[in-house]
């Protein structure tokens, strides 16, 4: 298999960063294809922690080409800061190792302001709990055909025209929300100032990736967020503003769908969610608290406590279908160590009717109650296990039951945040 897409199969934070970093050893190019710096991907290598938002997780390994595709929305000021931070940690980033698609839309300061103003103005039950980083408004401008894109930074006249077009939309909107009009001159000056720091990385990514593909190089696509935050298939409207599912990998960089050979879904051994919205297996008891504490479930981007609950096989079975998942990477199994009993949601009860999928209507989603199956836990530690032989029998039973219920095999198993604490079952890159 030449090209592998990694996607989150729940509500994000499944451990994509760790797995992308681990798999990047086998790849030549690592490409982000959607989302923005709302993503928070944590890598732990020999005890050293790296936190990435916009940069692909392959940058840390060195010697690979990292790509930010057109499907991403990019905050240039944040990127420059992130590059500086990661460089300080000893990682080298140059225009030879990082490329940004010229047609990538920019996140401007006005997008973050709008995002936060809307959230503040939202009444109870309508707040989304966004990261406040301007992701939604930036994608709105992209489809509204008024985005400033990376290539526009190269020519002052074009840049000014693009800014004016955007402000025609934003100023009236801001007035309605009680925010002062945009300082046009200051925004243009800010963009002109950041331009020389971004432009060296700008490239025709679609063309470069095509050349790489033809030369037999292996491309690893790094998804952000999770399939249940997908703008079409997620728990709308409590979702992010991009397509998250695997099909987006092709449009998000400009390759044909036939170039995707394997889809690896990243699946956490239990369920978490940051922000608002339905969550059928959410636990508000000691078990939920225990999952949060053992799993260190705090958001990387906003520091918010993640909501925790039992594994929901119904949801993952569904997201494996919408992303065409070939195999999963099952992560954070070690967090379940020491539970006497584990529960898995196998179906929902909706007004006395049994459903084997999550209905699309928000009010029905909210009324779905989980139907659980119970499995015995294990008292032994799985932390740091590097082979199946190291796993207790009940942990293996749990994994096998998950495979059956989601109708998808486990390709990788992760047992700690450390890069090497990973069990390989089937190599996604193997022919
Ligand atoms: P991502 O957004 O999908 O990349 O996931 P995050 O990095 O936001 O959250 C996953 C967290 O779990 C990070 O702090 C990882 O270091 C950590 N992690 C990843 N895999 C494992 C694992 O198998 N066990 C444990 N205990 N932690 C893990
Ligand atoms: P990674 O890549 C978890 C959530 C936010 C909010 C909703 C919309 O680390 O898995 P947005 O700022 O995107 O408009 O917020 O989506 N969200 C994430 N939750 N992991 C993420 O990324 C997320 N990115 C966005 O909490 O509920
Ligand atoms: Mg994360």
TrEMBL record:
Cofactor note: Binds 1 Mg(2+) ion per subunit.
Binding site for GTP: 12-18, 40-42, 306, 332-334, 414-416
Principal subcellular localization: cytoplasm
Substrates-to-products reaction catalysed: IMP + L-aspartate + GTP = N(6)-(1,2-dicarboxyethyl)-AMP + GDP + phosphate + 2 H(+)
EC numbers on record: 6.3.4.4
Subcellular location field: Cytoplasm
Active site: 13, 41, 142
This protein's record includes keyword Membrane: no
InterPro entries hit by this protein: Adenylosuccin_syn_GTP-bd, Adenylosuccin_syn_Lys_AS, Adenylosuccinate_synth_dom1, Adenylosuccinate_synth_dom2, Adenylosuccinate_synth_dom3, Adenylosuccinate_synthetase, P-loop_NTPase
Residue numbers binding Mg(2+): 13, 40
Binding site for substrate: 300-306
UniProt xrefs under HAMAP family: Adenylosucc_synth
Quaternary state and interactors: Homodimer.
Family per record: Belongs to the adenylosuccinate synthetase family.
Protein name: Adenylosuccinate synthetase
Organism the protein comes from: Roseovarius tolerans
Gene from which this protein is expressed: purA
